[in-house]
Amino acid sequence: MMTITQDGQPVYDIILDDSFHALSGFLRTYDPACRKKYCIVSDSKVASFYLDAIFSIMNKHTGNTDNIITFVFPEGEKSKQLATVEQLYRLLIGNNFHRSDCLIALGGGVTGDLTGFAAATFLRGIDFIQIPTSLLAAVDSSIGGKTGVDLDSYKNMVGAFHMPKLVLINTSVMDTLDGRQFVSGMGEVVKSALIKDAAFFQWLTGHRAEVESRKPEAMINMIENSDLIKKNVVEADPYETKGERALLNFGHTIGHALEKYMQFSFLHGECVLIGSLLAADISRKKGFLSEEEWEKIRDYMESFPLPDIPKDADVDAIISYTRNDKKAGADGLKFILLSGIGRALISREVTEEDMKESLEAYIKR
Amino acid sequence: MMTITQDGQPVYDIILDDSFHALSGFLRTYDPACRKKYCIVSDSKVASFYLDAIFSIMNKHTGNTDNIITFVFPEGEKSKQLATVEQLYRLLIGNNFHRSDCLIALGGGVTGDLTGFAAATFLRGIDFIQIPTSLLAAVDSSIGGKTGVDLDSYKNMVGAFHMPKLVLINTSVMDTLDGRQFVSGMGEVVKSALIKDAAFFQWLTGHRAEVESRKPEAMINMIENSDLIKKNVVEADPYETKGERALLNFGHTIGHALEKYMQFSFLHGECVLIGSLLAADISRKKGFLSEEEWEKIRDYMESFPLPDIPKDADVDAIISYTRNDKKAGADGLKFILLSGIGRALISREVTEEDMKESLEAYIKR
Question: Does the CB of B332 have a partner CB in chain A at under 8 Å?
Answer without folding.
Answer: no
